[in-house]
Amino acid sequence: MPLFERPQTGDRAVLVHIHFNEPDSQENLNEFKELVASAGATIMELVSARRDKPDPRYFIGSGKLEEIRQIAAQGQADLVIFNHSLSPAQERNLEQFLQCRVLDRTGLILDIFAQRAHTFEGKLQVELAQLRHLSTRLVRGWTHLERQKGGIGLRGPGETQLETDRRLIGGRIKALNRRLDKVCQQRDLRRKARRKSSLRTISLVGYTNTGKSTLFNRLTGAGVYAADQLFATLDPTLRRLDIPAIGEVILADTVGFVRHLPHGLVAAFRATLEETVDADLLLHVIDADNDSRHDCIDQVNTVLAEIGADNIPQIEVMNKIDLLEDTSPHIERCEDGRIRRVWLSAREDQGLDLLQQAIAESLLPQPRSGDVAKAQSDKPQRCQLRLSPRAAQLRARLFAWNVVRHETTNDAGEWQLDVEISPGLLDYLGKQQGCTIN
Length: 438
Known about the structure:
The chain is an alpha/beta fold and 438 residues long. The protein has helices at residues 25-39, 62-74, 88-98, 105-116, 120-134, 161-196, 212-220, 263-268, 270-277, 293-306, 352-363, 372-375, 392-400, 423-429, and strands spanning 12-19, 42-50, 79-82, 101-103, 200-206, 237-243, 247-253, 281-287, 314-319, 330-333, 339-343, 381-387, 404-409, 415-421, 435-437. A hairpin with a 5-residue loop joins strand 13 and strand 14 (415-421). The termini are far apart.
């Protein structure tokens, strides 16, 4: 069981956000409010200020500190949450002055993760991250137990209560690491089995609350929890997915990223993130309606580089186009003909066939240099296919791909299909046995 138990009722919280002349300060503030709401707290009031640098003792100035104390006392606040990382000393000094609990951004994210973890592995990872965070903050609450033990039968070297707690937490961290090592070994065995069976792995990555789980459910028919809140998904989920012209692949839904993701979380969730590192293709899901999406893209790519997944082929999936005006599902390509983005709406089930085409084309061998001009065309081509009776599986995939516009049969029992398909996959179909392009 995780070390921490949360109260069932919502906490009354005073929020504190300091502007340090950052260009994305407003977006950071909006995300902070969403994080607090996702944690289940009730926002009493937001206190903001501008500073050039943090105060080494309280992080904020004396004037704002007194203002927060009065607001918390009048409103009987349960805690004060800072949208910043506080040092253990700053957190302790703030609690002594404000006479209530103080939580920084890392602690807030850890609390959300504790709520979202449901599997055994997820709970282990959350507890490990919590303990690592707590181990630097043990001084709080134990100042009256800093004397060494004494009395009859207890004299000797001894140890303080603080040292005892550190030793116990250190032992628990080692035990959790051993358990997670076993989890990593089990995941590695499963990945090796998938490689032997030639199954490709596709991982959904992206900023939190961009619609990854909704897209995952649409593609696989799974019942993964999806909600309009940050970190709705924490435990990774894997499902088989049939991609026309490719066959079965493994699709993985992973935890979303966020600004200033604590390094301890990245380390603790290494078993989960290894599904991303070992993927053959990354689908980077992006909220197309988010004005700060470019910054979110940079944040995700930074984390991918940190875990060693920056060299894996990536397709940007611009989701939520139903919230945009005059934007229809389409594929966007680079100058060399490679697929760069797919614009779609997972919630409205728009453009999912284009995404499957993009996946298939990306996993197929790249076209030769002489075929680049042909592949650069963004628009699907309309053509006729003739399939022999032995190509029934290929026919079924074409229908699943939703590219067949009309079908007839001839006297020889062959299928004649009128299809609308991308140039890259049309070149692939021309190389399949039992398929003739008219």
